[in-house]
Design goal:
single chain; about 170 residues; alpha+beta; ASCH domain-containing protein
Length: about 170
């Protein structure tokens, strides 16, 4: 399990996420916190596979396996590839820039990747599940961990992973 700073690989995501967090923090009456992104890494037969969620556009098939796609922002927008996300499994590790923390003590069952077929395809950025916060890539990882029986993982202290609690709540239903 790895935590990376949101937008570590690009300027646009880092800046827009920082502004968004400032607005949310002001609305909630708290100080802004650094945002983090969860990536689940699973070793299977000596190969590290990373579970991640991101935009469908601008990627080549390569060594990734797409297991789910869903809409971004609004369900009707998902008809356009620019407003779709994919949940993917990528072979190999070390692809994620800006790693902040690693939780090596997480013991996952070997079949955790089999659970990917059951991940809900909610609209990214919306709370369609009524879980109290929007669905994000962090929701997917939290959902997988919770369904695997691992509920002890939390974002690094002093940071926030939007959607983390939503994934855990949906998985417990």
């Amino acid at each position: 399990m790895r935590w990376s700073a949101v937008g570590a690989g690009g300027h646009v995501a880092r800046r827009t996420s920082a502004w968004w967090e400032r607005l949310v923090a002001a609305r909630e009456g708290r100080a802004p916190q650094p945002l983090v992104h969860a990536v689940l890494e699973v070793e299977v037969a000596g190969v590290v596979r990373s579970v991640d969620m991101g935009p469908t556009w601008g990627r080549t098939r390569g060594t990734r396996r797409v297991v789910l796609t869903g809409p971004v922002g609004a369900r009707w927008l998902g008809r356009c590839p620019l407003f779709r996300y994919e949940v993917r499994v990528v072979d190999g590790s070390g692809r994620l820039p800006g790693v902040l923390a690693v939780s090596d003590d997480v013991a996952l069952p070997g079949d955790v990747l089999d659970l990917l077929a059951d991940v809900p395809a909610y609209t990214w950025g919306r709370d369609e599940a009524g879980a109290g916060e929007m669905w994000t890539s962090d929701s997917v990882v939290a959902w997988l961990l919770e369904r695997s029986g691992v509920s002890s993982v939390e974002p690094p202290p002093g940071s926030r992973a939007p959607g983390w609690a939503a994934g855990a709540r949906v998985a417990r239903r």
